[in-house]
From TrEMBL, chains A, B, C, D:
The keyword Ribonucleoprotein does not apply. This is Ion transporter. Keywords: Ion channel, Ion transport, Membrane, Potassium, Potassium channel, Potassium transport, Transmembrane, Transmembrane helix, Transport, Voltage-gated channel. It is a multi-pass membrane protein.
Amino acid sequence: MNRKNSLKHKLYTIIFEAETPAGKAFDVVLLVLILSSVLVVSLESVAGLRHDYLPYFISLEWGFTLLFTIEYLLRIYATPKPIKYIFSFFGLVDLLSIIPTYLSLLIIGSQYLLVVRVLRLLRVARIFKLTRFINEGQQLSSALRASVTKIIVFISTVLTLVVIIGSVMYIIEGEASGFTSIPTSIYWAIVTLTTVGYGDIAPATALGQILASFVMIMGYGIIAVPTGIVTVELSKSAREQATTRVCANCHQEGHPLQANYCYNCGYELPDQKS
Amino acid sequence: MNRKNSLKHKLYTIIFEAETPAGKAFDVVLLVLILSSVLVVSLESVAGLRHDYLPYFISLEWGFTLLFTIEYLLRIYATPKPIKYIFSFFGLVDLLSIIPTYLSLLIIGSQYLLVVRVLRLLRVARIFKLTRFINEGQQLSSALRASVTKIIVFISTVLTLVVIIGSVMYIIEGEASGFTSIPTSIYWAIVTLTTVGYGDIAPATALGQILASFVMIMGYGIIAVPTGIVTVELSKSAREQATTRVCANCHQEGHPLQANYCYNCGYELPDQKS
Amino acid sequence: MNRKNSLKHKLYTIIFEAETPAGKAFDVVLLVLILSSVLVVSLESVAGLRHDYLPYFISLEWGFTLLFTIEYLLRIYATPKPIKYIFSFFGLVDLLSIIPTYLSLLIIGSQYLLVVRVLRLLRVARIFKLTRFINEGQQLSSALRASVTKIIVFISTVLTLVVIIGSVMYIIEGEASGFTSIPTSIYWAIVTLTTVGYGDIAPATALGQILASFVMIMGYGIIAVPTGIVTVELSKSAREQATTRVCANCHQEGHPLQANYCYNCGYELPDQKS
Amino acid sequence: MNRKNSLKHKLYTIIFEAETPAGKAFDVVLLVLILSSVLVVSLESVAGLRHDYLPYFISLEWGFTLLFTIEYLLRIYATPKPIKYIFSFFGLVDLLSIIPTYLSLLIIGSQYLLVVRVLRLLRVARIFKLTRFINEGQQLSSALRASVTKIIVFISTVLTLVVIIGSVMYIIEGEASGFTSIPTSIYWAIVTLTTVGYGDIAPATALGQILASFVMIMGYGIIAVPTGIVTVELSKSAREQATTRVCANCHQEGHPLQANYCYNCGYELPDQKS
């Protein structure tokens, strides 16, 4: 029992952690396998290559899937809380990374869903000891999260706008220029407002082009809003990061550079420059 | 008389407010009706669906319109100031949401204007108790309003530019490449400067491509201006929000929201929440 | 002599200034004439309209040109320094606004250059008494001027990049996909880096699409640079505007909000909040 | 021996420096030669011109290459540390600027690689005595370098996104709309997320257009991130440049460049320029 537990613990250290040499080696192998398997799935979808090398692709795919299945089962075995692991984000990604191959026996084409394996790279990112990268990522995502209500308000406004613009363009342009229905026209409005501009649908009448010009110039201003929101949040978090003076009395952080006294307890702060 | 008034008041509470359970239920039903009716109008415009299900679409449309008409009349009845309501923003939107159906008896195609109903969602937004969202929306729109003169100057400059660029391109490219007239060329200039770039009209001569390259690189700088304006305004309003507390002792401004003591003189700050 | 001078002065007040009722009326008439004449030139270029209404267009054009010629001669007569006026920016624009019509007798099509008249609107902008607008415009253009060296460095980098990218794409893609020469490929690189993306030329080979993907993701970062430059300059000028405290001793402006003493002469500043 | 050394030194001053009149003249000649040779390579690739003037192009190319080869050999001769020069950035660029012509005897088309000569302009930039430009360039590139981890995190996120989006679109749209393989679909996802939008590949099914709309609106937010990062870094470096003076009496930081006295305690500040 004790021996089994120690094996379990050893496995856990290798599979889930990256501090030991064995754990590091495991992660490097996993990284290579994930990248190779995504590459194989991508290349299989190229008609010319599929025609010539289909048997090889299928063998490789099943090989990767078997390896990942074994890894998945070992993870369930090694973790002390299997249920929690299975329903965690990484547990679901690990499962989704193997299901499509088995599913492809029933549904042709489902193997292309295997690219979801690319999400597993997030797990392997640990091996780079990229705490600095993770910090930056958290800073970015916290900046985005801080502005989430602003972004929801913004996207609601944009969606209301494109529904109205799309419908008006449908009435003005009609089916001759490709505005075949209101949903299609709404799609055109999104393509235009975001300045993507495929050109598969484009206004052909004078009135439609005038309205489109208004939409584009409006899009100028609209594209500025998310940029402004994100910039302000990022600059806020950068400023907070810059002011890391700590009060010796109450350990409160984040004092402005010009502060003389702790704003939390009123204790005098040490001089910045001495 | 009193009973009638109390009925009127009850109706008012249900229709115009969202605090009572009945008022909340009314708003939820309204939300569903509005979204469904906009969806029905959109789907009706798809040729395949219109061909197969036209009678259903027409029935649904008239159903929604009758419900909204009853709601409109009840609103006029319930409000203490009917005239003010009718000519308010929401009153006009409510009216515009029912007129196109009646108009479609006379003018074919006018029912597509019913998508204006999407604006009614603004009214129903209340049910989410989204005061936080409304605050954010006000912050965004006040940032935009604060920079309205800058934006007018900017748009005037852009319009002057596109008129001149469009005319020069019309002379250089001519009708062979799709620059069929000065207004069309101005439309092309707007499509290019805003980086939408449909490609339905594109320069084909060497000289035209050189000029277009200049326009695009200029567009780089030009698209930066509204972004800069909005960012500065947003950051100003964010800073103002953060720094409106003043020390009663030394009049130092700019205390963080969580501060208890002035960082300049150490004096206790008044409590933020009282 | 005196009478002639007083007539000259009166003319000067009407034509060059906008404070008197006559001066204002003159500017309003001029505004309408300029907008109408640009509209006529634009509409004349539309093939359908030119075919039907050519005589009217030609009459209107000559009418406007004669009026503007008279105005130009009166301006030369009325101004105390005619030479300075003729070679000033506005003097040259005024001249360029009438020459193309006369030129069109010799060179067909040159009348389209008349749209340069749109620049004359700058002169008429005065009548709106838009000092606030002019201030904002100056703020914008001073922000752009302050960052002119940064922008030159940036554009040189972009130009070096597009020459190299364009040549490599020419070698990779060749003439089959529309990359017919190095200048054309450089044009494509500019279209792509600026995210305009017409799609008249697009990579078709796998290698070309991989390189194009790199260019586009690089373009992400590159388009951020001018925006960053302009935002920083605008925010700097906004901050300077915000700090308009004046020293009572030396009249130095621009003291920070938290300042206690004038940074120029050391004199104590009046308390901000009392 | 001494005489030889003095010749070597004189050559070094002329070729590597730009302070003497001879050195300046050398750089101006070099600038003209580089620009002309890049122009010749570009024009040679235009089919019409190549057909008519091929012998002239070849002569000019060999002429430029011989001149640059002589220059390269002189540089190796004149520099005191030839090995260090050969493997320096500029040494490699100088070599790459002459190799393609010799290579074109063996491999047809390799002469187009000569555009790499455009990089030599970096060297000649000195003659403008553009220390101010170099400062600005350093400021820009240090701002970019400071945010390099943030940008790597960002690009990794974007690459993960486009792999998943591309695969899903491949399954939804299939080969009919141009999504012929997963790599092609990933290319489409990059074209769309970066708002380039060629339109050579565009979704045609309703489901594909809905997904594409999500991608574009997401792209709105995503394009805001690099802009935010660069803006914050640029504004940080601008702020640091402005505020590095410290009061010797009260250690207050953040004095404007033109300040003579500390704004906090009124103490005289040390002179900025000594």
